[in-house]
Write a structure and sequence with these properties.
Layout lengths: L1 E6 L29 E6 L2 E5 L5 H7 L7 E3 L5 H4 L16 E5 L1 H10 L1 H4 L10 E5 L4 E3 L10 E10 L2 E8 L2 E4 L7 H6 L5 E5 L12 H11 L3 E5 L7 H6 L5 E3 L5 E3 L4
Parallel strand pairs: 3-4, 4-5, 5-6, 10-11, 11-12, 12-13
Antiparallel strand pairs: 1-2, 1-14, 2-3, 7-8, 8-9, 9-10
Bound molecules: zinc ion (2 copies).
One zinc ion (ZN) binds next to helix 2.
Length: about 260
């Protein structure tokens, strides 16, 4: 299994337009953060989690040749604005692509992206099929019958007052945009080895874990390795990463992690 962090930045990205702070002007490439997204590859099946406004640049940078399913965490713009940029994945392969979301997210997406999901869909739109995640599901290859389906477990979280989803795929869990994780979800994270977790900044925010809160959550989950994501321009990579506990690090754009799927 290979996990690629496509983007690790907060909603406006880092650098922030018009800002000349030390992080926005840093020469460390790890301080350049595009909007959050993640690609998981399991034995030839490619699962994309979120497609934000930077998706096209991320896909070129990482040379993403195939996508089998799109899992949506929630409908905020920084996580869904790149949906149209999936269109080329249907130029040579007309197989529809499942687009998995929680029901509240799906409801908003049907309106926002009426030309993809509405009755009157635009013929050139991405062939995304919106499906509600009510429990565990499997992702199948759009390209071959030889690849084994990949089981996925949705993880319920709260993002401010918005119910949002994380996803567990084998030993990996992707938990961005969260300010609270219920006990039942911690149970579903039992035994996970790699976690990517929301950690906005130090100053409190009602929709996101702060870095100290994320350290507590990471230690409660107890994965061998946790990477933080969704950081603002108040977080200087080298400085912050050096003071995190063992097994917890800041993620950065383009980070690739390989692990055993189960
Ligand atoms: Zn976000
Ligand atoms: Zn959000």
């Amino acid at each position: 299994m290979t996990v690629t962090l496509l983007g690790t930045g907060t909603s406006v990205g880092v650098p922030v337009l018009g800002c000349d702070c030390r992080v926005c002007t840093s020469s460390d490439p790890r301080d350049r953060r595009t909007r959050c997204a993640c690609l998981v590859e399991v034995d030839g099946v490619h699962i994309l989690i979120d497609a934000g406004p930077d998706f096209r640049m991320q896909a070129m940078r990482e040379d993403i040749q195939a996508v089998d399913a799109l899992l949506i965490t929630h409908h905020h713009f920084d996580h869904v604005a790149g949906l149209d940029d999936l269109r080329p994945y249907f130029f040579w392969n007309r197989q529809p692509m499942p687009c998995i979301a929680r029901e509240n997210t799906a409801e908003v997406m049907r309106t926002t992206f009426y030309y993809i999901f509405g009755e009157d869909r635009y013929s050139g739109a991405a062939l995304l099929q919106l499906q509600t995640a009510n429990g565990p599901f499997e992702v199948r290859s759009r390209y071959t019958n030889d690849a084994s389906p990949v089981p996925v477990q949705p993880i319920e979280m709260t993002h401010g007052d918005l119910p949002a989803l994380g996803y567990r795929i084998g030993n990996f869990a992707y938990l961005t945009d969260a300010s609270y994780i219920p006990d039942a979800s911690f149970e579903k994270l039992d035994g996970v080895e790699l976690v990517v977790l929301d950690a906005l900044r130090h100053k409190p925010h009602y929709k996101h874990f702060t870095i100290p809160e994320a350290v507590d959550v990471a230690q409660r989950i107890g994965a061998r390795q946790t990477y933080f994501t969704h950081m603002t321009h108040s977080v200087l990579h080298a400085e912050e990463d050096a003071r995190l506990p063992e097994g917890i690090n800041l993620g950065y754009d383009g980070l690739i992690i390989t692990l055993d799927a189960s």
